[in-house]
Amino acid sequence: MRAMGALHSGAVSVMLSPRGNGSSGGLHTSARITLDVLPGSALPSVIEVSSDWPCNQCATIWGHIFGLLHKLDVAIGRTYEQETLWQ
Predict the structure, then answer these.
(1) Rounded Cα–Cα distance for residues 87 and 83 (Å)
(2) Is the pLDDT of residue 83 over 60?
(3) Nearest to 73 by CA among 42, 55, 48
(4) What is the pTM of this model?
């Protein structure tokens, strides 16, 4: 997470929240980066992705979080591919 934050000049965080009632609802997970943007910049200051766990793609919560961080990195890349919109 630190390396991703350093590479994209921002702070990366992961949040885990209970989903549903009681202990059987699973978790809602989200990963976000708060970018260090200049005032007036057209770049978004926050990029966030989220998903629920358990899921059919990840056996463990650690694998799910790693996959979520990969999705965040892809979302950041898509944001920078759109840079012609604000130049």
Answers:
(1) 7
(2) no
(3) 48
(4) 0.82
